[in-house]
UniProtKB/TrEMBL annotation:
Belongs to the class IV-like SAM-binding methyltransferase superfamily. RNA methyltransferase TrmH family. It comes from Halomonas daqiaonensis. It catalyses: cytidine(32) in tRNA + S-adenosyl-L-methionine = 2'-O-methylcytidine(32) in tRNA + S-adenosyl-L-homocysteine + H(+); uridine(32) in tRNA + S-adenosyl-L-methionine = 2'-O-methyluridine(32) in tRNA + S-adenosyl-L-homocysteine + H(+). The keyword S-adenosyl-L-methionine applies. The keyword DNA-binding does not apply. GO terms for molecular function: RNA binding; tRNA (cytidine(32)-2'-O)-methyltransferase activity; tRNA (cytidine(32)/uridine(32)-2'-O)-methyltransferase activity. It is found in: Cytoplasm. It is an enzyme of class 2 (transferase). This is tRNA (cytidine/uridine-2'-O-)-methyltransferase TrmJ. One of its GO terms (cellular component) is cytosol. Catalyzes the formation of 2'O-methylated cytidine (Cm32) or 2'O-methylated uridine (Um32) at position 32 in tRNA. Residues 5-154 form the tRNA/rRNA methyltransferase SpoU type domain. Its EC number is 2.1.1.200.
Length: 244
């Protein structure tokens, strides 16, 4: 599905923006990059700023016109910082655009088109699109770098995709550390009790204090590694205590 979503950059001026856009795409699972008449490409700056997405830069297709870039697409959304007085549907929110584009991408290619750094897409290029979308931003300063705009909308697309039941997406979770056995917890509690008594923290076995500490460590649920660290701390303290 994500492989059917194409990012089109029209007449990009700075080659570094091509690389940064490729990086933004790859972090969001997109891989189809088409360049319309870039000023300078290929270029080492594009590869340098790709920072791990050099494969997208290397596989980017260069075409001569906007029409050629999207000719096989069933839906084409033009990203524009300003509304145009054109009879073209406009997505009020990027997430609406993303859900619609992802749905269309189930079966056919779709495209998200970005214009030049300085003045975006021309009216004629917007007319070649089926829809428009803008990124809501600070009305006093709503200027985004090209790659930033790609990142924002690519994230919306990825979010819309991963929320679909058929995506099978699973967040990467930290490896769960093993929990200590009841025997290991018992040895720790006995060790703690011994150090408390030898240090003078308690003068005699004190059931209430020990029960409160047991409850504290039960809530904390230390891992085996953490329990071993605590045992090492107790052993170090114990070695500095006078013999009873």
């Amino acid at each position: 599905m994500l492989s059917n979503i194409r990012i089109v950059l029209v007449q990009t001026y700075h080659p570094g923006n091509i690389g940064a856009s490729a990086r933004a795409m790859k972090t969001m699972g997109l891989s189809d990059l088409v360049l319309v008449n870039p000023r300078q490409f290929p270029d080492p700056e594009a590869s340098r700023l790709a920072a791990g997405a050099e494969d997208l830069v290397a596989n980017a297709r260069v075409v001569a016109s906007h029409e050629e870039a999207v000719s096989d697409c069933v839906q084409v959304v033009g990203a524009s910082a300003r509304l145009r007085s054109l009879p073209l549907p406009h997505f009020d929110e990027p997430d609406e655009m993303a859900r619609e584009l992802v749905e269309q991408a189930r079966h056919d290619p779709v495209a998200l088109v970005f214009g030049r750094e300085r003045f975006g897409l021309t009216n004629d290029e917007i007319r070649c699109c089926s829809h428009q979308v803008s990124i809501p931003a600070n009305p006093d300063y709503g200027i985004l770098n090209l790659s930033q705009a790609v990142q924002v909308l690519a994230h919306e697309l990825f979010t819309a995709w991963r929320r679909r039941p058929e995506s099978g997406y699973r967040s990467a979770l930290p490896t769960q550390e093993r929990q200590p056995t009841r025997e290991q917890l018992g040895h720790f509690q006995a060790h703690l009790s011994r150090v408390m008594q030898r240090s003078g923290f308690i003068n005699q076995p004190h059931a209430r204090t020990e029960a409160q500490l047991e409850s504290l460590f039960a809530r904390a649920q230390p891992s085996r590694r953490e329990l071993s660290l605590l045992r090492g701390l107790l052993a170090s303290l114990e070695s500095h205590l006078p013999d009873s």
